[in-house]
């Protein structure tokens, strides 16, 4: 309990600093900074490993979002200077993990534990779900931000036909490799910080390394799920006036793919949910 109280105090101070920095650097708008403060504080209070996963995702994604801004401005209809995110985007990338870390700390009292089904299958599933969540978020962001800068034309995941950059559901080799690397980084972070903060049985220490390939697979798999949903349930069209790929129908828009069932935030939320569940189940059987 003492450790939890210390982390809670650290959480308030550190989260304020991170949120203020993100707001000043235009990574978050005001609503995003407020929601980001709350989410970060909860993660830090719940455990330093969970905070590390969140912060690795946030900082690497923010850096990549700012890469090649001139090129992205000419392609992305929703381009914002600095990649500024609002509260909806913050929660779309953190709501499920936040719920899972709250459940985790309510069960453990704030004591971190290893991925070890012999000790607790339920807690192993919770940690696995959190890994899957941030591997998916990181993978999707890295894939989008690096893929759009590629010189190669992407292909629609459902037909493999070449499409314009910015089309929902379009994939590229560079983007898929980036998604895998993003997931791998999440797994590596989980293992390194987890071994420093969690109490592991001797025979379970080496098993923790399995989180790295699992997270890499979750990064790639989450990106593919996101692309499949985007290609089928999210509308993409080419505006002949703006000369950009857009997400809404209009008289000047020629349809490329998809339907008007989900918007971008909903696609992200569904792909995160599915990847989280799949990774949680995988960890409950692997560890």
UniProtKB/TrEMBL annotation:
Organism phylogeny: Eukaryota, Viridiplantae, Streptophyta, Embryophyta, Tracheophyta
Sequence similarity: Belongs to the TMEM19 family.
Keywords: Membrane, Transmembrane, Transmembrane helix
Subcellular location: Membrane
Sequence intervals crossing the membrane: 6-24, 36-59, 87-110, 176-198, 205-225, 266-286
Bilayer topology term: Multi-pass membrane protein
InterPro entries: DUF92_TMEM19
PANTHER family: PROTEIN PGR (PTHR13353:SF14), TRANSMEMBRANE PROTEIN 19 (PTHR13353)
Major localization class: membrane
The name this protein goes by in its record: (wild Malaysian banana) hypothetical protein
Any one annotated GO CC term: membrane
Keyword Chaperone attributed: no
